[in-house]
Amino acid sequence: MIYFLITAVLFVFLMVITRFFTHFKIKTLQAITFNYITVSVVGLLFSDWQNFPQMVPLIGNWLPQSAAMGVLFVSAFYLTGIATQKIGITTTALAVRTSLIIPVLFSLFVFKNMSKSFDIWNYGGLFLALFAIFLSVYRKTDAVEQQEAENQYFLPLLIFVLSGLVDTAFNYANMLFQTEAEAKIFPIFLTFFAFLAGFSMVLYQFLVKKQPIRFRNIVAGIVLGVPNYFSYYFFFKTISAFQNDGAFLFPIFNISVILLSTFVGLLFFGERLIGLNWFGIGLAILAIVMIAYQEIGISF
Predict the structure, then answer these.
(1) What is the pLDDT of residue 31?
(2) For residue 51, is pLDDT > 80?
(3) CA distances from 12 to 143, 155, 215, 244 (A)
(4) Going by C-beta distance under 8 Å and a sequence separation of 6 or more, which residues neighbour residue 56?
(5) At residue 13, does pLDDT exceed 90?
(6) Burial, 25: exposed, middle or buried (Cβ in 10 Å; 0-12, 13-18, 19+)?
(7) 142-174 as b/e: b if 16+ CB within 10 A
(8) Integer Cα distance of 55 and 65 in angstroms
């Protein structure tokens, strides 16, 4: 449970950091790119290199996955950072976490690594969670705002798909690990490939669009990268603690992040919610109970 709580706090903390990027005139893509090389360096510092020679044959098993995940990660993180600045922490967290359906379905029907059989209440809780998140995201808009929202519809759609694939990839990658040392070293390779993907885009902007690489963006990347490494590490630890049971973990984790993000958004950033949003949050809590009622000892 301690890994679960640490990971949830770190995920929200990362959104808080990106929320301040516009205030300090930070270029999101540059900061996120240098964040990933920071994650790699921090990972190197915390790695157990005494066992590295024995792991060399194992690296080839998940090197292609780490390369693909690196591209996926930088894309998802960049879009999430942009959304956090445009629509706020609360709404972004809600939009991102609607993607929980993707890793849950993979856990149930592809990986088949759930530690329990889902019954009608568990499935009901899963779909109630999706409905609750929809209500939590809902905002009243006038005609002008509605037109703008329609023009930017691709952003939440891309975040939904990419975030779901990221969580699914995490679950799959964790299934490949056999040792603690692997869990520490894998994020180094993953984030290095993410850095290469991001840096190629930064280099394109520098050479073609003449957008300079500023020192403050590098500093912002370092500030973001240190907690980001530990969010990866503790997320892997959390998945392991739940026996790779993504069908159980992801709904509870995602809704917990939503609730924590809502609290932070209200308390520190003055983000406001309407009545339907609060009703959605209440349904989210009920959904958690329905999904996990066997584990918390409740009978229906």
Answers:
(1) 96
(2) no
(3) 32, 20, 25, 22
(4) none
(5) yes
(6) exposed
(7) eeeeeeeeeeeeebbeebbebbbbbbbbbbbbb
(8) 16
Residues 122 and 108: their CA atoms lie apart, in Å, by 12
Choice between 41 and 56, residue whose per-residue pLDDT is larger = 41
The structure's pTM equals: 0.80
Distance, CA of 92 to CA of 158 (rounded, Å): 12
Is the model more confident about 179 or about 25?
Answer: 25
Structure tokens at 189: 């390779």
Alpha carbon of 77 to those of 11, 17, 214: distances in Å?
11, 12, 20
| Average pLDDT of span 99-106 | 80
Question: What is the Cα 300 distance to its own chain's centre?
Answer: 32
Query: Above 50 in pLDDT, residue 104?
Result: yes
pLDDT of residue 244: 72
* Alpha-helical regions (H) of the chain: 2-19, 28-45, 52-87, 89-97, 101-106, 120-137, 143-151, 154-176, 180-207, 215-241, 246-269, 275-291
- How is the chain split into domains, by residue range? 2-291
Calpha distance 163→97 (Å, rounded): 8
Per the structure block, which two tokens stand in for 74?
């930088």
Instruction: Single out the residue of 281, 259, 252 nearest to residue 107, CA to CA.
Output: 252
Per-residue pLDDT of 108-144, as tens digits, reads: 788 776 666 778 888 888 888 878 877 876 766 554 4
At residue 143, the pLDDT reads 47
Tokens 């840096």 belong to residue: 199
Selection from 146, 8, 167, 47 nearest residue 100 by Cα: 167
Nearest-angstrom CA–CA distance, 157 and 228: 24
39 close to 225: Cβ distance less than 8 angstroms: yes
229 touches 39 (CB < 8 A) = yes
